[in-house]
Each structure stands twice: as C-alpha cells, then as structure tokens.
Amino acid sequence: MLEIKDVTKVFNPGTVNEKLALDHFSLTLEDGDFVTVIGGNGAGKSTMMNAISGVWAVDSGEIIIDGINVTKLPEHKRAKFLGRVFQDPMTGTAATMGIEENLALAKRRGRRRFLGSGITKKEREEYRELLKILDLGLENRLTSKVGLLSGGQRQALTLLMATLQKPKLLLLDEHTAALDPKTAAKVLETTEYIVNKDHLTTLMITHNMKDAITHGNRLIMMLDGRIILDIRGEEKKNLTVEDLLHKFEAVSGEEFANDKAILG
C-alpha cells in the first residue's frame, strides 16, 4: 500500500544550517499494516510524513501509494489517497461550522465540496451513528459549532473526518500529544477501533514508547533520517519499554535521550 524507495531530503543545502532529514530512507507497508513510529527530536519522523503527503518535495527517491507513483504529485492531488490527523486539535476542522457540516465536507472529499441544499436526513442519521463510536455525546450535538468543543472532542472528530472516505493511507502525526492522558487514551482506543474496523493502512507517530508498543502490528524507530529498528509479530507483542531502550542503545551506540517518550 505504501512504498518509500531510497528517499533523501536535505533542508537548507549548502548553508551552515544544512540538515539531512531523510537519509536514503526506505519503507514498505502492506495493506492493513498499522505501524507506530518513534524516535527522538530531529529523527525525521515528521519529515517522512510530510514527504508522503507532499508538503515537501523530496530530493531523490520515489513514493508509491497503492501502486501509483505520487513522487511528483502536488499536495492537493495526493490528498485523495490520504487521511491525516495532526498534533494540534485545532487543525483539520472548521471551527465556525457545525459538527454535521464538518462531517459533510469530509464526506464530499474528492468531489466539489459545497453543501448545496444542505445535509439530508439520511446523512444526518449516518453522522449520528458514526459519532456514537466516540462515546462523547456528540451524536446529540450535531449542530454545535466545532469551536465550542474541547481539544479531545475536536481531535476525535478530526479522526472521524480523516477516515470517513476510507483513505488508502492514514497518517497520524502525534495526534494525542496535546491531550491530557485520559483523553489521549480515549482517542487512541477510538483510533484502534476505526483502523481495525475499516482495515486501514496506518502510520502513527507517537512520542510515547508505551503507546508505540501497545498499538499496531509493527513498530519502527528512527534516528538521523533512517530506520534503525523494525519490530513486528511476536517480538513486538512481547516487547517492553526496557527492551526497546536496550535495542536502541545496541543499534545506535547511544542512550535514548527523550524522557517524555520513556515516561509517557
């Protein structure tokens, strides 16, 4: 479903601020893979995601989604393949529009997006049933402005919107990092449910090692724009944070320096 082939990305080349963000980076995801991604600051996690979505043009290499080479496609043309949820709960929704209006716009992705004569009764019932999945009471607040929702409610809604059209690839960019622990756990639970229900191929960046281990069928760790660990199957099921730290130190020759990731 996703092939990243030998991709390199350098920021500010030829200057004192030159930064090699992706170093001949390669990754393949099979249909239905749920891959968690972890690494310290500057490891290249977000650059990888931005390269996939077309925010940054890569310097070399190829990106293929479901057999289609998207390397040269601009961001807006890749959007039909992708669903993405960002770290900031304020991103991805229209604050001045109602919950049902936001869902209607997401539902119309890939078509001319206007509400026309409005939202049909059938659509409204569909959105009500979808919102019940979240267990946040939003199914009874369809006309409420999204700007009035809490960060957790808004992020859960963004997740629904990103997956409404069942994207080829779901990108989750630290989508629970800005939430309190209880709300983050609820959003992750919903994420797992939606991903499994719709068999979505998913990449989830997280700053939390426990979450990276608990969720998904595969875990990759990045350092200096490369993958240094790729753990899956029974090995991942039996993994602990201590195991992961030992593996990181053995491969990299250094200690993992991100306390937030270790402590969750």
Write the layout of secondary structure elements.
Elements: E1 2-11, E2 19-29, E3 34-39, H1 45-53, E4 60-65, E5 68-69, H2 75-78, E6 82-85, H3 99-107, H4 121-132, H5 151-163, E7 169-173, H6 181-198, E8 202-205, H7 209-214, E9 218-223, E10 226-232, H8 233-237, H9 241-252, H10 259-263
Parallel strand pairs: 3-8, 3-9, 6-7, 7-8
Antiparallel strand pairs: 1-2, 1-4, 4-5, 9-10
Helix pairs in contact: 3-5, 5-6
| Structural class determined from secondary elements | alpha/beta
Calculate Rg over CA atoms: 19 Å
Describe the biggest sheet? 6 strands, mixed
Give the CATH class. Alpha Beta
Across the major sheet, the strand order is: 6-7-8-3-9-10
Mean pLDDT: 90
Query: What's the number of extended β-strand segments?
Result: 10
CATH superfamily: P-loop containing nucleotide triphosphate hydrolases
Number of helices: 10
Order of helices and strands: EEEHEEHEHHHEHEHEEHHH
| CATH arch. level architecture | 3-Layer(aba) Sandwich
Number of domains: 1
Low-confidence stretches: none
Global geometry: globular
Query: What is the third-level CATH name, the topology?
Result: Rossmann fold
Range of strand content: 15-25%
Helix percentage range: 25-40%
